[in-house]
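Limitations

Structures in this collection are predictions, not experimental determinations, and the ligand pose is part of the prediction. Treat each record accordingly. The example that follows, with adenosine-5'-triphosphate as the small molecule, is included so readers can see exactly what is and is not provided: the inputs are given verbatim, and the output is the predicted complex.
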Amino acid sequence: MAGRETELAGEQKRVDALYARLDELRAHQRERLREVRREGPSGSPQNRSERDAFATLYEDRVAQLEAVEDRLAFGRLDLDDGSQRYIGRIGLTDEHHTTMLTDWRAPAAQAFYRATAAHRDDVVRRRHLVTRGRSVTGIEDEVLDLASLGAGDDGDGSAMSGLTGEGALLAALAAGRTGRMGDIVATIQAEQDAIIRSDLAGALVVQGGPGTGKTAVALHRAAYLLYAHRRVLERSGVLLVGPSAVFLRYIDQVLPSLGETGVVTATIGDLYPGIEATADEDEAVAEVKGRAVMAGVVARAVRQRQRVPAHEQSVRVEGRTVVITPRDVQEAMARARRNHRPHNLARVTFVREMLSRLADQYVAQLGDDVPSDERGEILEELRTTRDIRVALNLAWMPLTPQKLVEDLYAKPPRLVAAAPELSRRDRALLRREPGALWTAADVPLLDEAAELLGEDDQAARAQARADAERRTAEVEYARRVLASSGNQGLVSAELLADRFAATGPRLTTAERAAADRTWTYGHVVVDEAQELSAMAWRMLLRRVPTRSMTIVGDVAQTTARAGARSWRGMLDPVLRSSWRLSELTVNYRTPATVAAAAQSVAGAAQLPVSDLRSARDVPDALVVEQVTDGGPDAVVRAAVRHARAAVEEMDDVADGGRVAVVAPAGLVAPVRSAIEAAGLGAALGAGAGAMDAPLIVLTPRQSKGLEFDVVVLVEPAAVLAASAGDLYVAMTRPTRGLRVVHRDPLPAGWPRDAGAAVA
Ligand SMILES: Nc1ncnc2c1ncn2[C@@H]1O[C@H](COP(=O)(O)OP(=O)(O)OP(=O)(O)O)[C@@H](O)[C@H]1O
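Predicted complex:
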């Protein structure tokens, strides 16, 4: 015991030194910030912009140093040469530039996550430090150099072989949920670490059952890539795509806690700047819109706006007649298409060619040689003649993506012509009045249309050239400023150039990227990727031409009808075979009893479930109550009873505790009303901040990707009837307990002995 106390005291001393250094750095940055601010608003605009840029820089750095307060240091490696290496949230050096703390993402930290007794990587001992605030409250050692141990001791003591730092891990898993996802930086497991540090290049697909840490791994990988490839990714940006706004809010603290704030987060519906996809949509309609054939439908719809007239048309211009002939139109079209430019851009060539042909007719009637300036006037006259304008528009209509897609939905003959491969029923599903709100499934179609239509981008291209030149000059200037101010290494010249606001407020990379439909990112992370339709994949791949992607999901949890049933089926057509697959196999969330029941039910429903081992079990994790009498409201009343008991149970959970009632869509409103009627309304969350409240009522679909301490699941058979994936998702949300209330028989595959039955 005395040995342990001594060890703890030793670690406390070391941790104190690290926090002291952190405080020193914070004070230093704050002082620099004060100095910059003290200089006031005088000086040339150039000086002012430079000062503002440094002020923002110091503010960011202070914020970053503040964000690493919790568990600053969490590990120690004892190495063969007798040295010790402390692992933490960021790297720290002392005033002599000697390393005090190694960033968890640095190559030197990798052994903390990967070393095993079989592959020690020079590690004699791995130590996990447990801290609360700035106090060291525990240490947990794993001795990897077995020669230094007695026989029979594996130096690990894990209940399940392969888990590292089991005590710290189990403590993390058992902690109460707060409604926000936390980082796992202190307890990343080896199979997760291999994915996190996998190469930047190419598309990496991570398949794993529920609770295997896919979301956690995806976020830590984003932080790792930004660390390891900062130069490239800071400039091009990283995009993270998630399934819903609630989900994005659930995860929004993880990257900042890892010191990264520049990642753009979006749902598929957010990816077309200027379009707000707010309307809900029937699954069947979304499925049709998501089919790969819709790319051909949109392409045909565009092409059908290029039409050769059936007859000649004579037009009077200034007392003379010119004739628009089908043959001229056809030839002008052929010329316009030659460069394969998008519709609206090729149209410029078409119109120019047609006007030139009409001008030839006009000039021929004048008989004399016509000087070139007069030909210009004739061209202008023809261009502004109404009948000619109408005829040329009918032949080659200028279009916005919105108009094209809206017309497809609103004008049945257009859809018949563009989509012969769709059945009458499918086409009827797409029918919609003009002016209706956009849905998430419309966005990939609009994006497809935007690609094929293009914008008249001459002005935009000139602007882009000017911007690029100015940017090069600014980066060069920033480089000189960094060199002369001794700030190299703190920030890249590119980032500092972003901050120089010489011409009004300048946007960060993330802001610029989010506002630009044609932005191409350096890396894209997709979570719950199994839900994306074929059309959504096409859109996403346009955002990342390098195909540097992290794609995480579980094809057994697919609930969208347009989503993936297998990765190969969904990704081969868009990525060909240029993607690699990794699997996660350990469930860290759900108690083993609940996970086993969910696997069994999902297997019976023929879902392609992955192998899954569970890191732990919890006593009485599964409770089932069958309601046999009392009318249809009885199930709702039983759900409320369980919800109340669970919320009360959470009072004893340190640091949080969240309860969700997951019910079939038709029962959500009755459950909500019953909760309010029972006086539990104050605990109930709603809107964007719903996850912050102690209690929430959700459909299975809305619970996707989220987790709660206790889930009360209402009528699993009804959930299954809508979608087997929905039931698998709903059953695998709790970290402590699943309470099931039902009248209808339990779904096939429900283990007979699973769950303490309540009468
Ligand atoms: N190495 C780890 N250490 C501590 N906690 C972990 C670890 N890996 C995963 N977890 C925790 O397990 C839970 C599930 O993780 P996560 O949500 O990332 O899983 P998922 O695979 O995305 O699940 P789903 O497919 O069900 O959405 C989270 O609370 C996460 O913090």
